[in-house]
Automatic annotation (TrEMBL):
<comment type="function">
    <text>Converts the free carboxyl group of a malonyl-thioester to its methyl ester by transfer of a methyl group from S-adenosyl-L-methionine (SAM). It allows to synthesize pimeloyl-ACP via the fatty acid synthetic pathway.</text>
</comment>
<feature type="domain" description="Methyltransferase type 11">
    <location>
        <begin position="51"/>
        <end position="141"/>
    </location>
</feature>
<keyword id="KW-0093">Biotin biosynthesis</keyword>
<comment type="pathway">
    <text>Cofactor biosynthesis; biotin biosynthesis.</text>
</comment>
<comment type="similarity">
    <text>Belongs to the methyltransferase superfamily.</text>
</comment>
<dbReference type="GO" id="GO:0010340">
    <property type="term" value="F:carboxyl-O-methyltransferase activity"/>
</dbReference>
<dbReference type="Pfam" id="PF08241">
    <property type="entry name" value="Methyltransf_11"/>
</dbReference>
<protein>
    <recommendedName>
        <fullName>Malonyl-[acyl-carrier protein] O-methyltransferase</fullName>
        <ecNumber>2.1.1.197</ecNumber>
    </recommendedName>
</protein>
<dbReference type="InterPro" id="IPR011814">
    <property type="entry name" value="BioC"/>
</dbReference>
<dbReference type="GO" id="GO:0009102">
    <property type="term" value="P:biotin biosynthetic process"/>
</dbReference>
<dbReference type="InterPro" id="IPR013216">
    <property type="entry name" value="Methyltransf_11"/>
</dbReference>
<keyword id="KW-0489">Methyltransferase</keyword>
<dbReference type="GO" id="GO:0102130">
    <property type="term" value="F:malonyl-CoA methyltransferase activity"/>
</dbReference>
<dbReference type="GO" id="GO:0032259">
    <property type="term" value="P:methylation"/>
</dbReference>
<dbReference type="InterPro" id="IPR050602">
    <property type="entry name" value="Malonyl-ACP_OMT"/>
</dbReference>
<dbReference type="InterPro" id="IPR029063">
    <property type="entry name" value="SAM-dependent_MTases_sf"/>
</dbReference>
<dbReference type="GO" id="GO:0008757">
    <property type="term" value="F:S-adenosylmethionine-dependent methyltransferase activity"/>
</dbReference>
Length: 252
């Protein structure tokens, strides 16, 4: 993805360390969806070596521990501060760094990631790198977001990530993997006010989209006024999420 400032991404997620787990309800639903589709697509649960990309506070990590039998679990995240959430995990090793830049553990059997790959600068290169780290027949299970994601924010501010459409995602995955599971949906959590929408995004680090916005009092007032066109009949304000789940097996 062009013009993605990883330092800004790291900085914003660092600020959300204390608030993320409580606010990330959509990401929690996505983690559950990921493992449900994985079970349906593979029925497998024994993986000697697993890597989770973007482990954060452990929303997906907790479910990995419950769902799989493994010998070693590698937990990788751009933000080193997340490591304290994982100190007591058995057979787990935390790695701090940018997955696109650092060497990955090899001979992996399964790689999982929840709501992370939309932050990549070069997704095709990353997918090739992940395939190289997997054993023959190894599995990749990820969630990400589609083009409808946070469209209210993009419409009002002109700021946001450029999310790939489902067809393009499947095309990129098919270069290195056989796609064996795919699902997408739209989620619309509701908030009492437009400012509550912004607070939610800040709490989950998602304000790391695009360049930094300076939220002056005037800009906040304009944002709140503009957001009223999305107001629902019950007076609530929706925020659209477009989660996509992909399960894939490394090509023979």
């Amino acid at each position: 993805m062009e013009n993605l400032d990883k330092n800004l991404v790291r900085s914003r997620f660092r600020r959300s360390v204390e608030s993320y787990d409580h606010a990330a309800e959509v990401q929690r639903l996505m983690a559950e969806e990921l493992l449900e589709l994985f079970r349906l697509a593979t029925g497998e649960r024994d993986f000697p070596r697993i890597l989770e990309l973007g482990c954060g506070s452990g929303i997906l990590t907790d479910r990995i521990e419950q769902s799989f039998d493994y010998g070693k679990l590698y937990l990788l995240d751009l933000v080193e501060e997340w490591s304290r959430f994982h100190r007591n995990r058995e057979r787990a090793e935390f790695i701090a760094g940018d997955v696109e830049r650092i060497p990955l553990p090899g001979s992996l059997d399964l790689i999982l990631s929840n709501a992370v790959i939309q932050w990549m600068s070069d997704l095709p290169a990353l997918l090739k790198k992940l395939a190289g780290a997997l054993n023959p027949g190894g599995l990749l299970a990820v969630t990400t977001f589609g083009p409808e994601n946070l469209y209210e924010i993009a419409d009002l501010t002109g700021s946001g990530l450029r999310y790939l459409d489902p067809g393009r995602l499947q095309q990129l995955f098919s270069r290195e993997f056989d796609l064996i599971g795919f699902r997408q949906e739209l989620l619309k959590p509701r908030f009492d006010t437009p400012l509550a929408v912004l607070k939610h995004l800040k709490a989950t680090g998602v304000t790391a989209t695009g360049g930094p916005l300076r939220w002056t009092r005037k800009r906040l007032e304009e944002f709140s006024a503009g957001y009223r066109r999305f107001q629902l009949g019950d007076g609530k304000f929706p925020l659209t999420y477009h989660p996509i789940t992909l399960i894939a097996r490394k090509k023979a």
